[in-house]
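2.7 Reproducibility. Because tokenized structures are sensitive to small changes in the input, we list the exact sequence used for Non-haem dioxygenase N-terminal domain-containing protein, including any N-terminal residues retained from the expression construct. No trimming or masking was applied before prediction.
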Amino acid sequence: MELPVIDLAPYLAIADAGNREGESTKRVSGLTELCHEVSRLLKETGALLVKDPRCTAEDNDRFIDMMEKYFEKPAEFKRLQERPFLHYQVGVTPEGVEVPRSLVDEEMQEKLRAMPKEHQPLIPKGPDPKWRYMWRVGPRPSKTRFQELNSEPVIPEGFPEWKETMDSWGYKMISAIEAVAEMAAIGFGLPKDAFTSLMKQGPHLLAPTGSDLKRYGQEGTVFAGYHYDLNFLTIHGRSRFPGLNIWLRNGQKIEVKVPIGCLLIQTGKQIEWLTAGECTAGMHEVVVTKRTIDAIKLASEQNRSLWRVSSTLFAHIASDAVLKPLGHFAESPLASKYPSICTGEFVEQELSVINLKGNKGES
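Resulting structure tokens (single pass, no recycling of outputs):
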């Protein structure tokens, strides 16, 4: 199965015109069907591909070029940006720190064993052998109960373009998330800003990963074990090396192919909470596949970097906002499974499971 691509340009144009004229975007002709399609895809597949005219392939390439240079630096250089006392929520997370949930969650392991063989994930033997860099995007709250989730950014020496490149790509991807969040809200029969109002001053994280394919490029290597994301929505630019598998709501496993110039959006645990399970957090893994091996060979022939960079951004609900089923979702029979909880407390609980809080360590 190929995921369909949603072109955001019509929504952005119609929404902008509607806002200028003071007209509700819900009433603009042709918009409702597109919004229903977005909400349907998030509900049924937990993922969708989007094309946003504000996020170009050139933007993505510029970001990946810089991150390849960073991850190619020696480990001792990168560890200067490590902040374990902040639960790795800013700066670099070295390989061997993040523990995939499938390694520690017994209930999840039982479900995996019950899956048909062809849809089972690869079970890792230890922590993920990938690096990650955490970069906050957007304004932080002046007062918050969760300071470590809203800390100042870390900038490595020797990268004068770092802040501008990170912020530029990060803000563009957040803009795409906000458009999808508005469309999903309309499609679900909620106010247009039902989700985006809760995202304001959220601890959004541009969190690219770096996986050393020269060292770990054997087929079957698990870079990110089977897991869901704890945030609201996750967005990825196109990686130069394939290897991302996702699971649809029906349990089907598919390898994602992101077309050039497109972005992948996946549902996280926070949107599951807000919709009382109408959307469920999408499961996924990153592994070395036959297609990854082919890409490694081609990159080697062309003398390109053998670091697999994912330009991942985690969009969050604000730390001090309350997570609870919204609007008509509060009447759902499943609503009781999603009791009200402060988002920051929810995040800390999730981090403790995956080794990024209990060991002062992130996901």
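The CA atoms of residues 15 and 25 lie 6 Å apart.
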